[in-house]
């Protein structure tokens, strides 16, 4: 371990992950307060409806969203290292253009589809107007440009600060709605304002960083002009868009499917279990966000980035074992305390889902390694195949075992994704000597 931390890049990965963790820990606690107030302030059916409305907007956003932050890191980080601000402006302008286009398409599609799909998803006609209002968040939900800007400038401290905004506003609004008896409408408006506040804060921080570097014109949107000057740009963004649209929709679509095949109350229970699972796996997500920008600056044909991946995976897996023990011991009392006895059933589901926790956390470097090695299409095939298998299992197992079937499908989906990612990653490692030196971004140019 002492030798590991003598590596400056590894120290940077851990440092940036620590910044993000500081925001996520506070955000997780505030998020629990918000969910507790919502769970106690509404019936399980109305709580489930809130989950479905939020999941629908998130699901539509996930489908149309381009991973522009990955694009900025992939093309912008090498340009910044070279001092090539003109290329960096093209990169950010192209990302802004994609975010605007995808956000407007998602908004129009979400609003048009909702009246026809609401009943199937379990959103009653009496709550349709609230769901339509929530869809107006889709353009800000899909924007990943500000995150990419802050990451490429190594401002993870700013990202950590922003991570507190949404849960803080949500916790305050949820407590107010609970104490004042504002009911379902109050909680929906709280979730809406909190999401909007967090998104706008992220844009404000990125604009401030660009202004500090005298690059405010980098946010001028463009599509075809910058794309002509950035070789391989369209191929990269479409591949990562499809791959992440498939997998990012996992959570929201799962909630919608559970609500459609079972009940809104069941969707609420599944949401509680999934929220605890996501919170438990946050260390891997934070390491991933810090890991990706750093290895994109390294030579993929050397052993260095691959060694970093193994070390990071071992640390993440060890954390997963500790978290698994904590969840097993303290999960039920926490759910009982926070949500009440009527939601304790979610703990049984959570225990089942945490069976895949170590696998999910230890496997986090795989996707980043594939992007570094120029194997974006392999990542797309892996995620698409795993998501298809998960979707089939979700429907089949829910019919066979009810809510427990959803948990079994979740575990199987995580394992499928890891297996399908591992095979091309090992292939890329064996053929790493054939990869171009100096990073994939430069190779693409």
Descriptive notes:
There is one protein chain. By secondary structure, the chain is mainly alpha-helical. The chain has one domain. The chain has helices at residues 2-5, 8-41, 44-64, 68-82, 85-121, 128-135, 138-141, 145-152, 156-162, 165-180, 183-212, 224-229, 233-248, 250-261, 264-280, 282-295, 304-339, 345-353, 357-362, 365-372, 376-401, 403-430, 440-444.
What does the oligomeric state look like here? single chain
Total separate domains: 1
Write down the overall geometry. globular
- The CA-CA distance between the termini, in Å, is 37 Å
How many H/I helical runs?
A: 23
Short key terms for the protein model shown above:
single chain, 445 residues, mainly alpha, 82% helix, disordered C terminus
Which helices and strands, and how do they pair?
Elements: H1 2-5, H2 8-41, H3 44-64, H4 68-82, H5 85-121, H6 128-135, H7 138-141, H8 145-152, H9 156-162, H10 165-180, H11 183-212, H12 224-229, H13 233-248, H14 250-261, H15 264-280, H16 282-295, H17 304-339, H18 345-353, H19 357-362, H20 365-372, H21 376-401, H22 403-430, H23 440-444
Helix pairs in contact: 2-9, 2-10, 2-16, 2-17, 3-5, 3-6, 3-11, 3-13, 3-14, 3-15, 4-5, 4-8, 5-6, 8-11, 10-11, 13-21, 14-15, 14-21, 15-18, 16-17, 16-20, 17-18, 18-22, 20-22, 21-22
InterPro entries: Poly_Biosynth_Transport
Protein name: Polysaccharide biosynthesis protein
Main location: membrane
Briefly summarize what is shown.
It is built from 23 helices and no strands.
């Amino acid at each position: 371990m002492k030798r590991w931390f003598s590596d400056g890049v590894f120290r940077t990965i851990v440092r940036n992950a620590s910044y993000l963790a500081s925001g996520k820990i506070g955000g997780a606690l505030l998020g629990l307060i918000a969910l507790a107030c919502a769970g106690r302030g509404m019936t399980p059916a109305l709580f489930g409806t809130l989950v479905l409305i939020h999941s629908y907007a998130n699901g539509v956003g996930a489908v149309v969203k381009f991973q522009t932050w990955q694009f900025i890191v992939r093309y912008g980080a090498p340009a910044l290292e070279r001092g090539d601000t003109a290329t960096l402006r093209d990169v950010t302008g192209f990302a802004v253009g994609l975010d605007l286009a995808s956000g407007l398409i998602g908004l129009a599609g979400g609003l048009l589809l909702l009246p026809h799909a609401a009943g199937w998803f379990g959103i009653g006609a009496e709550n349709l107007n609230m769901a339509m209002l929530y869809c107006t968040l889709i353009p800000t939900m899909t924007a990943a440009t500000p995150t990419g800007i802050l990451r490429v400038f190594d401002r993870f401290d700013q990202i950590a600060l922003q991570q507190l905004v949404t849960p803080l506003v949500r916790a305050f609004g949820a407590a107010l709605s609970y104490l004042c008896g504002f009911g379902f409408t109050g909680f929906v408006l709280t979730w809406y304002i909190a999401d909007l506040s967090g998104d706008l804060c992220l844009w404000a921080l990125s604009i401030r960083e660009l202004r500090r570097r005298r690059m405010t014109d980098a946010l001028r949107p463009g599509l075809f002009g910058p794309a002509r000057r950035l070789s391989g740009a369209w191929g990269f963004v479409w591949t990562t868009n499809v791959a992440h649209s498939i997998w990012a929709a996992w959570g929201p679509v799962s909630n919608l499917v559970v609500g459609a095949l079972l009940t809104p109350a069941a969707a609420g229970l599944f949401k509680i279990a999934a929220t605890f699972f996501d919170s438990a796996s946050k260390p891997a997500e934070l390491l991933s966000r810090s890991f990706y920008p750093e290895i994109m600056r390294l030579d993929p044909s050397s052993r260095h980035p691959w060694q970093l991946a193994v070390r990071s995976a071992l640390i993440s897996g060890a954390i997963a074992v500790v978290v698994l023990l904590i969840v097993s011991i303290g999960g039920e009392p926490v759910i009982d305390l926070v949500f009440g006895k009527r939601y304790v059933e979610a703990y049984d589901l959570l225990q089942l889902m945490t069976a895949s926790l170590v696998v999910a956390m230890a496997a986090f470097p795989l996707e980043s390694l594939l992007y570094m090695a120029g194997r974006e299409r392999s990542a797309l095939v892996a995620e698409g195949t795993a998501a298809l298998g998960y979707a089939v299992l979700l429907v089949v197992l829910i019919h066979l075992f009810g809510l427990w079937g959803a948990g079994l499908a979740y575990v199987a989906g995580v394992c499928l994704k890891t297996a399908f990612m591992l095979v091309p990653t090992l292939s890329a490692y064996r053929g790493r000597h054939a990869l171009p030196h100096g990073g994939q971004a430069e190779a693409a140019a």
